[in-house]
Amino acid sequence: MSARIVVLPGDGVGPEVTTAAVEVLRAAGDRFGIELRIEEALIGGAAYDVAGSPLPDETLAACREADAVLLGAVGGPNWANVPVDKRPEAGLLAIRKALGLFANLRPVRTLPFLADASPLKPEKLANVDIMVVRELTGGIYFGKRQRTEKAAFDTCEYTVEEIERVLRAAAKLARARRGKVTSVDKANVLDTSRLWRDTATRIFADEFPDVTLEHLLVDAAAMHLLSRPADFDVIVTENMFGDILTDEASMLAGSMGLLPSASLGESGVGLYEPIHGSAPDIAGQDVANPCGAILSAAMLLRHSLGAEDAAAAVERAVIECLEAGLRTRDIAAGKDAVGTRAFGAAVADRLRA
Ligand code: IPM
Ligand code: MG
Q1: CATH architecture label of 1-99+269-353
Q2: Which ligand has the minimum distance to the alpha carbon of residue 89?
Q3: Would the pTM count as exceeding 0.85?
Q4: Does the active-site annotation cover 158?
């Protein structure tokens, strides 16, 4: 098998964590006989500085031609004052939209030996295995917005079709898991949420009667994620709620740096990125946790290349390294920490062994 991968390192710690993930990807490719053609392109502030746009045409064209895209992170204080449509984040939103990546899969698992990295009690963390499906190309992120001197607005819009397709993606994932979907909304206040809830009720009754559907208001969901995290299987929600809830959920695992994601559309290229940001405060110091990026590479192998054995081997190698006591600073809990490069190399070595 051969595959073309575009790597978009981006800003801040993005280049460091993608370098580690690419080393692991190459090791997995060698071991499982996948010929990887890897090229780099610019996105975010790094692209704005060179090309005057956070998503240059050449980058988008390269991504459209690729089998999959691996992205680091975008943003940082250097670009705080650039026009809103040229901000690094605008490049990320634009690529998600342009590639039609409406379903953002964010798995959250806890590992017993990392319990000391989480602020929650260990007994709460047992058996947590959640798949958050965040709608990624609609809602308030993409609605009409305006700012004047004295006022501003952002609008949240969803069509039935946009809601249906992400609900279907969540239901199919639940079928291969524990068969339960929690749909999160704010139906007591928002019309988009009432449409979301009605659509969920109908779609699950008509098409997924074998999957259990539960509705939860987003404020309650934020609380239940801490009080009964092990009860959740698949959580599906709109763009903004999913952004917020997954940062919260990362603390179940122990750190933002641990969580990967896969952004998928109806077909075609998938985009894989850690859920963390560019962390400019620690950029260039070789201390960022590359697990989120490496586990995103595992999701790439699984979802875009259909290489389940290679994906599982990468995930196993990460877990083994963590279990052996290799920890970056964010999860070291007072013990000796290893750097980004050393952690990536250790995972790659395990795959080569
Ligand atoms: C994420 C990030 C992005 C988002 C930012 C960088 C635009 O927070 O992927 O979770 O809000 O989607
Ligand atoms: Mg976020």
Answers
A1: 3-Layer(aba) Sandwich (3.40)
A2: 1
A3: yes
A4: no
